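S2.1 Query sequence (Fructose-bisphosphate aldolase)
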Amino acid sequence: MPPMEKNRTVQILKKAAADQYGVLAAIAYNIEQLTALVRAAEARRSPLIIQLFPSTLKQLPTLAHAAAQYVQTSSVPLSLHIDHAQDEVQILEIMDTLPVDSIMVDMSHYDKEENLSRTRRLAKECHARGIAVEAESGRINGGEDGIADTGDLEALFTTEEDVENFINADIDILAPSIGNIHGDYPPSGPDLHYGRLQSINKQTRGRVLVALHGTNDFPEEIMQRCIRSGAIKLNVNKLLLEVWNEHYRKNAANTTLVKLIDEGMDVLQKETERWMDVCGSSGKA
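Output structure tokens follow.
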């Protein structure tokens, strides 16, 4: 089995854990967003994890190859991660056909034992190909574009037993449930259990790296508190992309397409650079 120490995602996150900063793991839905994210990383001299949803791989089959080209040629550390892969057939196909560095094997829509057994089996397949594995312990409520909604399933906070079970399933990155949700938070905002996150980080003792899902509409202070509590891989979607969406909503009707794209990329790059500063990854490349 290829050693995971040489895996790009693992290398990026281990350095961040050692130096106590967070790394954006940013969703891109198209080539323009992908390009803006990479430009931001190079401008801020920051590492970056590029994330694609399985649904995007079907919509835009060449986007993963474009992302992999950036990974190979960028002047800063990048990696390519497939987020929330929930179909075992597609996961096996991704492993064998796409140049990815890591995959979130998301079996959280199954009960605990089934989740663990499927995760363990798929982690073995990934590791045989040098691909790092992320998994979700407990269950994070909600859904967003690209992720199947958990529907009527109840959110389950990550327990100490969950942490040990998933470490024993041989994963590399753990995404705990600490009150975070996929999609938008209620008007009262996030109600996160920082103490639980700190305990999970302490319990892992570096055996796995900790990811944080559900960052929509986070203020800067919540993100920084999560980083201080042990979250290293910071999954971001709407947090960055809402400025892109807003730009298009306001300007699509009265702006030429080329200008609309150029301005949208500039807006997204600036917002990504801002969050790299917030997370402490700027200048760490």
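The chain has one domain: 4-279. The domain at 4-279 is CATH 3.20.20.70 (TIM Barrel).
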